[in-house]
Specification:
- The chain is of the alpha/beta class.
- The chain contains 16 helices and 27 strands.
- It folds into three domains: 142 residues, Rossmann fold (3-Layer(aba) Sandwich), CATH 3.40.50; 199 residues, ANL, N-terminal domain (Rossmann fold); 82 residues, GMP Synthetase, Chain A, domain 3 (2-Layer Sandwich), CATH 3.30.300.30.
- A hairpin with a 2-residue loop joins strand 20 and strand 21.
- It starts with 5 loop residues before the first helix and ends in a 16-residue tail after the last strand.
């Protein structure tokens, strides 16, 4: 069913699935707490009442913290009240967060106690914020309002009146190659993107939400799409405990980024090499029910699609960006093309101009908040310049070849996509992370090796092993695509919250 506002999604779910579980999370090590769709709607309405009573209706309200029921209610209530939600990356330093709060003209801050330092820093430097709400405690500061207290004091229904073209969310990009930008998304941008595609997922499907909740992929496809389908959304409390939480919640589906998938892939490859039976292993690693993993955010080795299929799990590779709310294309369980990032969403069209992929449709952002120059550079006659190199085939499937801004132009004028080289080399287990760039007139590969693989393979000289790998690659590569310099890292590359490597 297609929706055009976020309150419409929640209202439908309440009517259709009211008594069914909506959100589950860990109360203790092995104890699960839950809220039904009716409880979710009632708490959302009550908090929306509180927002209006506080005089913040229509204003910009930030929410920061790890994934939680309170975070979800906060976001839904902000959007229901006709205010503008500003989700913030909880992993950022307090100083950087305060800068984003100012840039987004935030007037109210909802925070988790894990980031009480942000509230303290904002109180000193963000003078436009005059309402602070703690999701779980107010003991440290009497001026801070209680999330649960506000809900209890403002119980009652709320009648939303939001236009589908009204600004709903300002979502900051991850800033992999520069200053993050505040993407302006309307209700229709987000609601239609989340609900326009029928993935043939039935109600009561159990979804384990493991990605950062402030990220567009998680917010749109875990939370909004999950609610629209009457799914059971389970909150993963830590990436470090994801394997244990899979056993606890027994999900049917999980959204992951490729780095997560690679971790599980290594285990499966070990199992396959040992000749162990697939079905018991699948249940041991992924629980009794898991059948689908949706992947997005970065390149995924297509061989993993076949590997996971051997264990009865479909990997659906997709493609998107925050500026498109965020999904542009996705593979479907009944039509997987493992070398493609999927078929265009029904609300999108795409074309290629000078090798760059351009996208147009109802999910495309309104622009960057208070950044007219950057908006003009990115949007042209409704077409969004993705910055990605690629093409669309006659069936509407997208194939990517690299990033336009990362292109290496050699001395003889040849264009080299570093992603092409990175993808070709990263299939070797010796390489855990890699960035290819131009350095002093030649192509250089900076590599972070996989220490576990090095140990298991008994490799004594890592640099020599990497050089041998590069030499093997260079034999079959055109001269302008050959790598002439390597740099070996002793630590991981810095990454965004969505686990993308930051390029300097």
């Amino acid at each position: 069913m297609l929706f055009h506002t976020i309150p419409d999604i929640l209202s439908y779910a309440n009517e259709a699935y009211g008594a069914d579980d909506a959100i589950r999370w860990k109360k203790s090590k092995n104890e699960i707490e839950s809220r039904t769709y009716s409880e979710l709607k009632n708490d959302t309405d009550s908090f929306a009442n509180a927002i209006e009573k506080l005089g913040k209706k229509g204003q910009h309200i930030a929410v920061i913290g790890p994934s939680s029921y309170e975070w979800i209610v906060s976001y839904l209530a902000i959007t229901e009240s006709g205010s503008v939600a500003v989700p913030i990356d909880a992993s950022l330093p307090a100083e950087d967060i305060c800068e984003l709060l100012d840039r987004a003209d935030v007037r109210m801050l909802i925070f988790d106690e894990a980031r009480s330092d942000v509230a303290e820093a904002a109180a000193k430097s963000c003078h436009d914020i005059n309402v602070y709400v703690s999701m779980n405690s107010t003991e440290h500061c009497p001026q801070v309002l209680s999330f649960n207290g506000l809900i209890d004091d403002n119980r009652g229904s709320y009648e939303p009146a939001v236009a589908e073209d009204a600004l709903c969310t300002i979502m900051f990009t991850s800033g992999t190659t520069g200053k993050s930008k505040g993407v302006m998304l309307t209700h229709n941008n987000l609601a239609e993107n989340a609900t326009c595609l029928d993935m043939k997922i039935g109600p009561h499907t159990v979804i384990l939400s493991v990605l950062p909740i402030h990220h567009a992929y998680c917010l749109s496809m875990d939370i909004l799409k999950g609610i629209s389908l009457g799914s059971v959304i389970c909150i993963n409390d830590s990436i470090m405990r994801m394997a244990k939480n899979i056993q606890l919640f027994t999900p049917d589906m999980i959204l992951m980024v490729p780095l997560m998938i690679e971790t599980f892939a290594r285990k499966l490859e070990e199992v396959r090499a040992a000749g162990l039976p697939a079905e018991p292993v699948r249940k041991k690693i992924f629980g009794e029910r898991l059948h689908t993993i949706c992947s997005g955010g970065a390149y995924l080795n297509p061989d993993y699609v076949d590997l996971f299929a051997e264990f009865g799990i479909a990997i659906l590779q997709g493609y998107g960006m925050t500026e498109c709310s965020p999904v542009i294309s996705t593979n479907l369980s009944w039509d997987i093309r493992k070398n493609s990032v999927g078929k265009l969403m029904q609300n999108c069209e795409a074309k290629t101009v000078d090798g760059e992929l351009l996208v147009r449709g109802t999910s495309v952002m309104q622009g960057y908040y208070k950044m007219p120059k950057e908006t003009e550079e990115t949007l042209s006659d409704g077409w969004l310049h993705t910055g990605d190199l690629g093409y669309v085939d006659e069936d509407g499937y997208i194939y990517l070849t690299g990033r336009r801004k990362n292109l290496i132009i050699t001395k003889n004028g040849e264009n080299v996509s570093p992603e092409e080289l990175e993808n070709a080399l990263s299939v070797n287990h010796l390489i855990k992370e890699i960035i290819v760039r131009e350095s002093e007139g030649v192509i250089e590969a900076e590599i972070f090796p996989d220490s576990e693989y090095v140990k298991n393979a008994g490799i004594a000289d890592i640099r020599a092993a990497l050089q041998a790998l590069i030499d093997e690659y260079n034999v079959n590569a055109p001269a302008y695509k050959r790598i002439y310099s390597i740099k070996v890292r002793e630590s991981e590359f810095e990454k965004t919250a969505s686990r993308k490597i930051k390029r300097s």
